[in-house]
Amino acid sequence: MSPVFSIVLCTYNAQPYLDECIQSLLQQTFHDFELIIVDDGSQDGTLAYLNALTDPRIRVIPLDTNQGLIFARTTGFDAAKGRYTAIMDADDIAHPRRLEEQLQAMDSGEADVCGSFHITLDTKSGRRRSRRSAFSDSDIRALLTIYCPLCNPSTSVATELLRQHRYDPSYPHAEDYGLWCDIASQGGRFKNITSPLLTYRLHPGQISIVKRETANNSFKAIQAKYVQAVTGNSLVPHSMPVKQRWEDAIVFMKMINQKIPGISFSANYELYAEFQYRSNGWLTPLLRIERLVIALWATLRGRYKKS
């Protein structure tokens, strides 16, 4: 009998953090899952640790050489037997109720992709910080036009969607953002649970400068494609002079609230801020007023059109 959840965990030289990560998954309050661990050619003793695990819910898939995250994750997705697939990173820690709470949201029909708020843990200083984000379907789909409002390793996805939508290898280091935008543009529903169901570990060398530059290039390409799909317009939100804002940005705000009814005031406020310049000195109060007015207009217009 197939499990409800398939947890896909990819490892690569992750031994220092791996035991805490795996134990947090094995101690979930919801027990009907399989844990698929794809080891991406580790050389630090990770595979030996994995092979010593005895929990019958664990399946280890070793790759002979390092193939990269896209290949490793896709391998795990293809092996998944569960109705839902939970994504996990090897250096993070799951809250005990993560699967239980996400199952409730997804079984109720609220979402096809369900993430959560999270806590960041700085391994150098030990500092923990609570991180919030958009939580409604409308806000998440709208804010995908400017950034990713999902914490990727906190997400669970209907496995059927992962059969229909694949990672695009032409977008390295932004593959998750590309996947969410693809699903959103095809009518997928999203939700972030407002409890922190994941501790996201920050550590040196997590993202190199080279990868950050590559990720930024990938992000821009995905963003342009998604904005076009959602609004039917090629205008990607970016800083522009006030006269142009009152022309082009207003069109964008009008279109996105028409295409995605129910966007909140706070999300509209964030969207319009992308069209303004930063570090404006004495103009800052006036720009905040401008954002407030446009966000309120867009929100009321969206609600009126919805009704």
TrEMBL record:
Family matches, as Pfam families: Glycos_transf_2 (PF00535)
Single GO MF descriptor: glycosyltransferase activity
Record has Membrane as a keyword: no
Broadest EC class assigned to this enzyme: transferase
InterPro entries: Glyco_trans_2-like, Nucleotide-diphossugar_trans
Keywords: Glycosyltransferase, Transferase
Ubl conjugation among keywords: no
EC number: 2.4.-.-
Glycosyltransferase 2-like domain mapped to chain residues: 6-133
Listed PANTHER family: GLYCOSYLTRANSFERASE, UDP-GLCNAC:BETAGAL BETA-1,3-N-ACETYLGLUCOSAMINYLTRANSFERASE-LIKE PROTEIN 1
Protein name: Glycosyltransferase family 2 protein
Record organism: Rhodoferax potami
Phylogenetic placement of the source organism: Bacteria, Pseudomonadati, Pseudomonadota, Betaproteobacteria, Burkholderiales
